[in-house]
Inverse folding.
């Protein structure tokens, strides 16, 4: 049992560190969140629509905004280990890569949840949505957040090595997250009363995706940071 | 590995040339069968007596279906080879994974194109969102295009082989998820309307379809083989370059030149070691 | 001073070690044996392979061929387990710019496996030893000078009490007091029974610390003054 506690303590150490850095540097709060809101606004301009139409599309636009912003957040998380040789230092410290993954993914998850909350506010104000099923909304939002954070952290380790450009991360990450986008959008459609679908079934799919992403990430992260 | 080449600078061998000729011949035969000898899909409606069916578009069947099956086979091969890379870490598995992925991606693109060509006259649309197989194939294409993009980012295969293996395995694991999510998505799916069962597949049509499987099987085998050999030679070239770089490096400086370079006196230099 | 041998097993033993950077053979067959408690100076021109050699001993670089044994671990087979026993000071700081000195050193202590109580005690001592004044401790690292950052990196390594120190040009860019701190650190390390490999261009500086000089060029060892007697005292 102490191994599990050690693992959780290590993960917590990394998560707290990443969140502390975020608190100091305010990259996500100051840059990524405004970007996400901007995406919502741009959709409003581009679609040139009234509230009713926007409400129909709200979940889809929401999740596209979240995914695009997640790219930035994940990239930022990975970039923390690229400067100043901290990745080497992490490898030297003997911190288990699984704990490193868990910690970083948790920090990204917290940032994504914050992002989703703010974006939800944006939906209320800009698109005039109404929440029919808040429990479903929260469940789907959290599970999708886990799936995105876990998958993103895994690929983040890949897409920030030497000689790799940041443009690789979107090409790798977005197709993998396609089912999450589909499922989360449908779940939100139900929760916002925009379509008659079984949101909880879709949330079940999100749970499966979140689980797989977390397990695979924990196992594979070690491989990706070594050479 | 199979088939050492007799002449340098070519990946061909007696075996592979024979295979290539057979494959090419079969392609020609298939072309004749598919586009000339078999008939178009024309059926008489039981009540109105009108002709309906896919007409000539059905000829795409002989290309599209075998390619789709072989595409899945190639990606499966890539997944298995990726497991091999992670477990065994020998160059053979890595080159095989890369080759299978490339061939699979090309096939995937062709499946999408032939499917689109086939679908346009039959379904009256080039593309249909919400169709399970279409969407899954599209995402599959994007996933492996990403894999190939990753492989192209660095010239150091060693750093990359395990990472690429992880990407390939994640892609393969993702496919059931994509499939489920699209299947539940919309209940309309065009593929269901025109399944293979609906067409009367028998006699010459059946034979042509089977022959199509055989033909594309041979073609894919030949392609994968050649691609594997190219990858293998690339590896050999790198090893060779490393070897000669090593020899060059060892003869870089003598101890005396060295001392002059960093300004050290004799008493500090000490004896040379082997 | 008694010889400190770990059952007679050398701390570092390289035989024909080859290491690649991409496709370039940074190390083209290195033979080197370092016994416990030795201080070894690595010198050689730029591009000779000194950094790669240190990173190889740290377990960060994969040996292409040859045999590499550090602290009894065979690095050809498995590289991870040796890392916690080794401290590598490279050219990069290994610090998080937005965190303070204390937060950084504390994090690295915990990451290396120390409990919270162990970490707190050692961190304070290490910061003091590295001569980092109290008023600096609460400042984010990116506001510090290069010398202060180097001292912080060293403090983060000191708390781990490694058995083998690998220092890659530790004096570079430091002022006099900074260099004194590094020298003091090497002295402490040896007194504690650790082994030290230092790569440096500043021969005069380091020569006072230990008489063995290994010269590297073109990825191989070209000169080696050999292990010397350690009858002298340590200041």
């Amino acid at each position: 049992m102490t191994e599990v506690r050690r693992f959780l303590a290590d993960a917590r150490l990394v998560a707290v560190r990443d969140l502390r850095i975020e608190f100091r540097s305010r990259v996500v709060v100051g840059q990524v969140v405004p970007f996400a809101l901007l995406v919502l606004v741009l959709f409003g301009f581009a679609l040139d629509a009234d509230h009713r139409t926007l409400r129909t599309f709200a979940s889809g636009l929401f999740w596209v905004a979240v995914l695009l912003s997640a790219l930035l957040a994940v990239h930022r998380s990975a970039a923390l280990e690229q400067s100043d040789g901290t990745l080497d230092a992490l490898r030297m410290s003997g911190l288990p890569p699984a704990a490193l993954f868990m910690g970083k993914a948790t920090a990204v998850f917290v940032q994504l949840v914050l992002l989703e909350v703010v974006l939800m506010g944006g939906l209320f104000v800009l698109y005039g949505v109404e929440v029919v099923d808040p429990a479903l909304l929260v469940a789907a939002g959290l599970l999708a957040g886990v799936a995105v954070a876990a998958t993103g952290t895994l690929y983040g380790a890949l897409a920030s090595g030497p000689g790799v450009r940041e443009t690789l991360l979107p090409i790798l990450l977005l197709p993998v997250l396609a089912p999450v986008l589909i499922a989360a959008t449908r779940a939100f459609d139900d929760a916002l009363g925009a379509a008659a679908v079984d949101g909880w079934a879709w949330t079940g799919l999100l749970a499966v995706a979140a689980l797989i992403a977390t397990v695979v990430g924990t196992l594979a992260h070690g491989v990706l940071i070594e050479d | 590995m199979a088939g050492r080449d007799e002449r340098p600078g070519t990946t061909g061998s007696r075996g592979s040339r024979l295979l290539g000729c057979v494959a090419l011949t079969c392609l020609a035969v298939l072309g004749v069968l598919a586009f000339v000898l078999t008939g178009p899909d024309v059926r008489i409606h039981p009540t109105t007596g009108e002709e309906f069916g896919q007409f000539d578009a059905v000829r795409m069947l002989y290309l599209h279906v075998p390619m789709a099956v072989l595409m899945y086979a190639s990606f499966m091969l890539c997944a298995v080879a990726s497991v091999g890379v992670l477990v065994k870490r020998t160059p053979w598995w890595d080159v095989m994974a890369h080759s299978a992925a490339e061939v699979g991606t090309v096939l995937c693109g062709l499946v999408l194109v032939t499917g689109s060509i086939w679908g346009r006259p039959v379904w009256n649309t080039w593309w249909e969102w919400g169709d399970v197989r279409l969407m899954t194939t599209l995402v599959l294409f994007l996933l492996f295009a990403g894999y190939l993009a990753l492989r192209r980012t660095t010239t150091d295969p060693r750093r990359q082989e395990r990472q690429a293996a992880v990407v390939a395995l994640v892609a393969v694991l993702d496919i059931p998820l994509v499939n489920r999510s699209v299947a539940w998505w919309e209940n309309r799916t065009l593929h269901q309307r025109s399944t293979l069962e609906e067409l009367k597949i028998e006699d010459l049509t059946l034979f042509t379809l089977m022959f199509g499987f055989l033909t594309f099987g041979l073609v894919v085998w030949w392609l994968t083989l050649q691609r594997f050999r190219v990858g293998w030679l690339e590896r050999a070239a790198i090893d060779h370059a490393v070897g000669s770089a090593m020899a060059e490096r060892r003869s870089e400086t003598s101890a005396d030149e060295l001392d002059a370079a960093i300004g050290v006196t004799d008493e500090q230099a000490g004896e040379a070691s082997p | 001073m008694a010889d400190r041998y770990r059952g007679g097993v050398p701390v570092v033993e390289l035989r024909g070690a080859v290491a690649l950077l991409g496709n370039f053979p940074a190390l083209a067959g290195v033979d080197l044996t370092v016994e416990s408690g030795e201080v070894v100076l690595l010198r050689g021109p730029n591009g000779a392979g000194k950094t790669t050699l240190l990173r190889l001993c740290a377990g960060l670089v994969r040996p292409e061929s040859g045999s590499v044994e550090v602290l009894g671990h065979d690095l050809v087979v498995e590289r991870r387990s040796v890392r916690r026993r080794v401290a590598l000071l490279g050219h990069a700081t290994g610090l998080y710019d937005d965190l303070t000195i204390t937060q950084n050193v504390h994090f690295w202590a915990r990451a290396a496996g120390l409990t919270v109580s162990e970490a707190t005690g050692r961190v304070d001592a290490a910061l003091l030893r590295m001569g980092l004044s109290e008023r600096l401790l609460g400042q984010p690292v990116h506001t510090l000078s290069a010398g202060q950052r180097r001292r912080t990196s060293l403090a983060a390594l000191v708390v781990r009490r490694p058995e083998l120190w690998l220092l890659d040009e530790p004096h570079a860019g430091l002022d006099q007091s900074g260099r004194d701190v590094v020298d003091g650190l090497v002295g402490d390390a040896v007194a504690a029974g650790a082994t030290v490999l230092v790569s440096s261009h500043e021969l005069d500086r380091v020569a006072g610390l230990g008489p063995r000089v290994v010269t590297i060029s073109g990825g191989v060892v070209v000169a080696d003054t050999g292990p010397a007697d350690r009858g002298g005292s340590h200041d």
Remarks:
- Chain C touches chain A at residues 58-60, 62, 80, 83-84, 86-88, 90-99, 103, 107-108, 110-113, 140, 156 (CB under 8 Å).
- Chain C has one domain: 12-224.
- Residues 13 and 69 of chain C are 5 Å apart (CA to CA).
- Residues 1-5, 229-235 of chain C have pLDDT under 50 and may be disordered.
